[in-house]
Design a protein that fits this description.
Length: about 200
C-alpha cells in the first residue's frame, strides 16, 4: 500500500462519499460542501475563507457542470487566500451506489480510481513538487498553436485536455495557469505540435 499524501492545506470536496474515497489516500483535513448547500451555508463559507488565508485550501470537485459551479463559487469566496486546484479527468461511467449515471455520464471524485487521484494531486504539484525551470507557457503560445482564437480552437483544447487527463470543462481562462502547473513549455510545444499534425491528417 502506498504511503498517504501528507498535506498542510485543507482539502475541500463536494460530498461524504468523496471524503471516504480520499481518506485512505490523504493525511489531511478534508471538508465537504454538501453539494450546493455551500451556497447558503455562511458558516462553512467563513471557515473555508479563513482556512484559505491561514493554511491554504485545495479544491477538488467533480468534472461536471455542477462541480465547476461549486469550484468557481469557492474560488470567489476564498479570493486573496492560497488556493490550489486539483482536477480529475473526464472518465465515463457511474458510481456503484448509484442506480444510473449522472447527467453528463462522468464519474465523480468518489468513483475515480485511487491511482488517478494520486496522479491528479501530483499534477497539481502536491507530491514533493520541484519548480519547473525555463520560460512558461504564454497566452501567445495558446494563440499561435490554435488553442484560442481559431475555428478549431475548442476541438484542439479538448484534445489537449484529454491527453493531459484534465476535464474538458476547464475554461480558457483557467487553462494557462493549469498548463504551467502540469507541463513545461517544451512539453507543451511538443504536444501542441503533435495535435496540430493529427488535426491536419483528419
Amino acid at each position: 500500500m502506498e504511503e498517504k499524501i501528507t498535506l498542510a492545506q485543507a482539502v475541500i470536496v463536494e460530498g461524504k462519499y468523496d471524503k471516504i474515497r480520499l481518506s485512505p489516500l490523504l493525511d489531511a483535513l478534508i471538508l465537504t460542501t454538501d453539494g450546493f448547500r455551500i451556497f447558503r451555508d455562511k458558516e462553512m463559507c467563513a471557515l473555508i475563507r479563513r482556512l484559505a488565508h491561514s493554511c491554504g485550501i485545495i479544491l477538488l470537485t467533480d468534472s461536471d457542470g455542477a462541480g465547476f459551479q461549486i469550484r468557481n463559487y469557492l474560488t470567489k469566496i476564498a479570493r486573496g487566500g492560497e488556493i490550489t486546484h486539483v482536477y480529475i479527468p473526464d472518465v465515463p461511467g457511474k458510481e456503484r451506489r448509484k442506480p444510473q449515471p449522472g447527467k453528463e455520464g462522468k464519474l465523480g471524485v468518489e468513483g475515480i480510481d485511487p491511482a488517478l487521484l494520486r496522479e491528479a494531486f501530483a499534477r497539481a504539484g502536491l507530491l514533493g513538487h520541484v519548480p519547473k525551470e525555463g520560460p512558461g507557457i504564454t497566452r501567445q503560445d495558446l494563440y499561435d498553436w490554435g488553442l484560442t482564437g481559431g475555428a478549431d480552437s475548442r476541438a484542439l483544447r479538448y484534445a489537449l485536455l484529454a491527453r493531459l487527463g484534465l476535464p474538458a470543462r476547464l475554461s480558457t481562462g483557467a487553462l494557462l495557469p493549469v498548463l504551467n502547473q502540469v507541463i513545461t513549455r517544451e512539453e507543451f510545444l511538443s504536444l501542441a505540435g503533435s495535435l496540430g499534425q493529427a488535426a491536419k491528417q483528419e
